Inverse folding.
């Protein structure tokens, strides 16, 4: 499975749930898989996608929050797994696109190419639900229980947080998200129903 | 254990600025603030982070979800935070109130704290973050409140610095003893 194929699976399952993407290729693929207001593309702050998703999940416990991270990015902020394991927001789904390389910067191998196991790390930090998947079918099976509410899933949603390590092949990006961070933020917050007063105005 | 007046003021200022989420990396003086928030400001959520950069990332997510977040850190952690500030909070105009407990200023005993302590204001100036300094215990509440309302109102992060002469009550004090 390529990263873009895995990204399309998550976008398809997310419905209108927000998706936070790590900078570089994960964000490019999210855009290519389907630009939408509920996409939060980062252009910097490497390592913080999972932290942004965690904060959002804590702020809005009633909605599911997806994060598309990279293995290199998560390795830059491994403490995030401990904080997620500590706070355990049930609505957070962290998908790590593990291509075992720093693809955005030229394909240098990451430690996951040499055995570093992010699934085991998440479990060791107290994350209650973790999985490693290698095919689209496996990813669908693991991620479907967390799909957005408008899909009309039966019964109670599974309790997260969940960390899904998707072993993916690198694929050349085919799109590039909007560059303006303020635009990305304002569109995202409006889509979540908490627009900034700067864009929505205020009733006096 | 009596809460120092400066710490009560910081808590009141955070609350008055509308912030109900405090993401923190612990620090000795800030322990007074954390204890007071836990005891008397039950509507404020305290969230522990492993590192200051992570704390700012969590705060950014809280803001995207409609909250007005505060990050509390020691000044030594500013160095850990710069990538989050310069490539996320500032370009995306995500406002966070940063409450910074100073090390390395007057009264410091540990030379390892001095270079960053000296650099804090210059760094904030260089990256364009407005900062205010709490000059006395009595003014702590208003200084923090105004820093917060300005940050959230203008959608630009702001910092409020707590010097050791205020948090330790002495210009030349030794290392503050951990409260029992």
């Amino acid at each position: 499975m390529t990263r873009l194929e895995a990204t399309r699976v998550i976008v398809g399952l997310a419905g209108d749930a927000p998706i936070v993407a790590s900078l570089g290729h994960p964000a490019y693929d999210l855009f290519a898989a389907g630009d939408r207001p509920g996409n939060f593309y980062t252009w910097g702050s490497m390592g913080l996608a999972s932290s942004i998703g965690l904060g959002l999940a804590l702020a809005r416990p009633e909605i599911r929050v997806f994060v598309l991270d990279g293995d290199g990015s998560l390795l830059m902020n491994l403490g995030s797994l401990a904080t997620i394991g500590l706070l355990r927001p049930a609505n957070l789904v962290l998908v790590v696109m593990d291509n075992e390389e720093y693809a955005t910067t030229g394909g240098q191998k990451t430690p996951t190419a040499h055995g570093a196991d992010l699934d085991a790390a998440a479990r060791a930090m107290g994350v209650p639900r973790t999985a490693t998947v290698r095919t689209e079918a496996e990813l669908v099976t693991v991620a479907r229980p967390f799909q957005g509410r408008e899909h009309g899933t039966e019964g109670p949603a599974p309790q997260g947080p969940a960390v899904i390590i998707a072993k993916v092949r690198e694929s050349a990006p085919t799109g590039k998200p909007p560059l303006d961070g303020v635009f990305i933020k304002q569109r995202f917050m409006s889509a979540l129903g908490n627009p900034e007063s700067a864009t929505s105005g205020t009733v006096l | 254990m009596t809460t120092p007046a400066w710490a009560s003021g910081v808590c009141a200022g955070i609350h008055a600025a509308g912030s109900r989420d405090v993401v923190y990396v612990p620090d000795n003086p800030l322990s007074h603030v954390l204890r007071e928030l836990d005891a008397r400001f039950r509507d404020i959520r305290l969230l522990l982070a492993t590192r200051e950069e992570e704390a700012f990332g969590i705060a950014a997510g809280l803001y995207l979800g409609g909250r007005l977040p505060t990050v509390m850190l020691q000044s030594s952690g500013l160095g850990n935070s710069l990538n989050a500030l310069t490539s996320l909070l500032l370009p995306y105009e995500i406002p966070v109130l940063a409450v910074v407990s100073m090390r390395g200023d007057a009264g410091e005993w540990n030379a390892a704290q001095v270079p960053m302590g000296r650099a804090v204001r210059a760094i904030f100036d260089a990256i364009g973050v407005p900062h205010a300094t709490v000059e006395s215990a009595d003014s702590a509440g208003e200084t923090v409140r105004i820093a917060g309302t300005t940050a959230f109102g203008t959608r630009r992060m702001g910092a409020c610095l707590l010097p050791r002469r205020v948090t330790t009550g002495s210009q030349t004090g030794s290392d503050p003893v951990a409260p029992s």
